[in-house]
Each structure stands twice: as structure tokens, then as C-alpha cells.
Specification:
- Keywords: DNA damage, DNA repair, Hydrolase.
- Pfam families: Pur_DNA_glyco.
- Belongs to the DNA glycosylase MPG family.
- By secondary structure, the chain is α+β, with helices and mostly antiparallel strands.
- It has a single domain, classed as 3-methyladenine DNA Glycosylase, Chain A (Roll), CATH 3.10.300.
- It is built from three helices and eight strands.
- Strands 1, 2, 3, 4, 5, 6, 7 and 8 form an eight-stranded antiparallel sheet that branches.
- A hairpin with a 2-residue loop joins strand 3 and strand 4.
- The protein starts with 7 loop residues before the first helix and ends in an 18-residue tail after the last strand.
Length: 192
């Protein structure tokens, strides 16, 4: 059974190797980023609850989706109700439904089918319609379960493309996995 901690920083490395599934396609999660809600200037919840981020303030185990650059990105809410910690799922290795993932991402080598948050949701078929899905319910459209294999080595470093709180090493990934996205530093903004 997957246990979601009160802190995104505690939960994030535990999600490596967990399985995110939507229908016939499943990925083993290989890269994540932690966002600590109102305590984290890079979080969508930093300024408090809004219509966009409301699910982040609900109970743990739900899917927080948002759209960026025309892509859907997905997060696992991991905080108690009223708080807003969440973990962005950045990348994964397709372990089931490979043919369908290839159809959704034509011309891409298998290791990169779910490399990057927008590519991951496209390979899985996750859309904004999945916002708020209870991930730990086995009958949900999108589910999250523990993986069968232990992760051998976990690396950590700065989050990708974050302009605020950019120096926090809250990105975690499976060391040496080809599905992990490339690090891209964003233009740095002041944290005020």
C-alpha cells in the first residue's frame, strides 16, 4: 500500500518506481518534483486556494492537473486536508500498453515516450478531465500503486524550469534511467 506523507519532500522519492496507470497504459515513475504549497513560492498553491488549485487543498491521494504550453501536467496531492503539498510526476518508463503509448507519441523512441510531464500525460492519455481523480481507488480512471521493483539509486537536484525557489533540490529521479528528462534552468526571479 502506498503511503502519502504530510510533506511533498518526504513523499516524492517514495513515488519513484510507483505505477501510474490510465486504462491500458501504465508507467513506472522515474522522475518527480516536490512542491510544498503555501510554504513554497514555486507552488501553484503558494498564494492560497483558487478555483485552479482547489484539489491541492483537499485530501491526499487525488490528481491535480493543470495545463502548461498546451500540455496537461499531473501531480499527486500528498498533504492532509487544508494543506497543499503535491508532487509533480515528471517522467516514467512505459511498462504496459506500449503500442497505445507509441500511437499517442509517434516517432518517439520507447525510452522517451513518457519523458517530461506533458509527454507523460500524453502517453498515458491523462487530460484535464482527470482533475481530482482519487488515485488510490482501484476503480478510478487513473490509479497509483506501488511498483514491483525497488529503486536502486535515487538522485536529487534542482527542480526543472522553476524561476522561484530555484535552488531547492526537490527534484528526485531514478539515477541512470533513460526516461528522466533533461535539466533546464528557468530565468530566476526574486523570491519575494
Amino acid at each position: 500500500m502506498l503511503h502519502l506523507h504530510d510533506s511533498a519532500i518526504e513523499t516524492a522519492p517514495l513515488l519513484l518506481g510507483a505505477v501510474l496507470r490510465r486504462g491500458p497504459v501504465a508507467v513506472s515513475i522515474t522522475e518527480v518534483e516536490a512542491y510544498e504549497g503555501t510554504r513554497d513560492p514555486a507552488s501553484h498553491a503558494y498564494r492560497g486556494p483558487t478555483a485552479r488549485n482547489r484539489v491541492m487543498f483537499g485530501p491526499a491521494g487525488h490528481l491535480y492537473c493543470y495545463s502548461m504550453h498546451g500540455h496537461t501536467c499531473c501531480n499527486v496531492v500528498c498533504s492532509p486536508e487544508g494543506d497543499a503539498a503535491a508532487v509533480l510526476v515528471r517522467a516514467g518508463r512505459v511498462i504496459d500498453g506500449l503500442e497505445l503509448a507509441r500511437e499517442r507519441r509517434p516517432g518517439v523512441k520507447d525510452a522517451w515516450l513518457a519523458r517530461g510531464p506533458g509527454c507523460l500525460t500524453r502517453a498515458l492519455g491523462i487530460t484535464m478531465a482527470d482533475y481530482g481523480t482519487p488515485l488510490l481507488n482501484p476503480t478510478s480512471e487513473v490509479t497509483l500503486t506501488m511498483g514491483d521493483e525497488a529503486v536502486a539509486e535515487i538522485a536529487s537536484g534542482p527542480r526543472v524550469g522553476v524561476s522561484r525557489a530555484h535552488d531547492r533540490p526537490w527534484r528526485f529521479w531514478v539515477a541512470g534511467d533513460a526516461s528522466v528528462s533533461a535539466y533546464k534552468r528557468a530565468r530566476v526571479l526574486r523570491d519575494d
